[in-house]
Amino acid sequence: MLKTNEKKLVEMAVQGKPASAYQWGAFEVGHDGVPYAFPSTGGITYNVKVGDPAFGWAGDHIEAGVSTIQDENNRSSKANSGYNFLACIGNEARIVSGAAKGKKGTVLGTHGGVEHVMIDFDAKTLDQMTMDDKILIRTKGQGLQLLDYPDVLTYSLDPRVLHKMPIKETNGVLEVGVTTVVPACVMGSGIGSMNIGTGDYDIMTHDEKIVKKYNLDKLCFGDFVAIMDHDNSYGRTYKQGAVSICVVVHSDCVLAGHGPGVTTVMTTAKKSGIVPKINAKANLGRLLGIGRFKK
Fold first, then answer.
1. Residue 146 lies in a domain
2. DSSP-assigned letters across all residues of 183-205
3. How far is CA 11 from the centre of its chain?
């Protein structure tokens, strides 16, 4: 087991609610110049779950499960930033009001711009929920350190997920299982963001040849992926030899510069820190038995 400082991590409650689904405009214009009107972010999404394909939906930037927010009227507020920063992938969420009171779910990731935290609940719970429900997240993960690997930083990762990830220690290097290796050239919206502990950034998917070459169209919600030559240590930037491990958190998109969104969970600026290994089972839902993998 990886040695960490998890016993020193602070556990803290934050509370949110389902975020309203928006229509951003009567039409938006895709990368190909074609106008479209699709469902997009927000709401309680019944039929899109972790483990489902990130492609093929009649929608744009679709978020699996329940999209939640702390402050819907001021998305850039400090309170909402704290909600997004503290909520880590794998954290337990509990409904504290309404017909579904007491039911538990799991944080799937964060989505920048709209500043949503996405949470998985089972189908029965989703049917009981309303847009007025309150959701308490028991946060833990920010500040997590890998004691034997000081050059590898972690963000937004619950320690229980870390210990379930397909990771192998080999000669001072972490071999991390991922479903997909993503080249640096396709990273788009979100590059340059300084706050790695919130939001996401997008894998651009509008070049058909490179999509097929790297099997990007096979991505699923919850997949662990490796972004090559991208350093997410203190901001999202290109750096040769760097590797960032991320989780797919929203669907493909037709807007230029956009595509499936990924939340960063692990990064290193040094080539020797992380080596990605293809593993078809490297999916958050499979590791935790949630979403499409719930028995």
1. no
2. -GGGB-TTTT-S-TTS--EEB--
3. 20
| The pLDDT of residue 275 | 96
Q: Is the pLDDT of residue 213 over 90?
A: yes
DSSP code at position 121: -
Q: What pLDDT does residue 25 have?
A: 79
Structure tokens at 143: 């500040």
Q: Is the pLDDT confidence value at 161 over 90?
A: yes
How are beta strands 12-18 and 66-69 bridged, if at all? antiparallel
| Domain end call among 86, 109, 139 | 139
Q: Is the distance from CB of 136 to CB of 94 less than 8 angstroms?
A: yes
Nearest 10 degrees: CA dihedral of 203, 229, 142, 126?
20
pLDDT 10s digits, 134-155: 999 999 999 999 999 999 999 9
User: In this structure, is residue 239 part of a structural domain?
Assistant: yes
Whether residue 129 sits in one domain with residue 57: yes
From the CA atom positions of the chain, what is the Rg in Å?
A: 18
The yes-or-no verdict on residue 295 having pLDDT over 90 is no
Q: Provide the domain limits for residue 79.
A: 6-139
**Is the CA virtual torsion 74, 78, 83, 87 positive or negative?**
positive
From 241, 273, 143, select the one nearest 196 (Cα to Cα): 143
Q: Which of 198, 193, 200, 268 is nearest to 236 (CA)?
A: 193
Rounded Cα–Cα distance for residues 129 and 68 (Å): 12
Q: Which residue bears the tokens 């890998």?
A: 146
Please, which residues have CB within 8 angstroms of residue 62's CB and are 6 or more apart in sequence? Answer: 39, 40, 41, 45, 48, 250, 251
Query: Does residue 19 lie in a domain region?
Result: yes
- Assess whether pLDDT exceeds 90 at residue 271: no
Position 23 scores a pLDDT of 81
Instruction: Please tell me the distance from the alpha carbon of residue 157 to that of residue 265, in angstroms, as a whole number.
Output: 6
Residue 292 falls inside a structural domain:
no
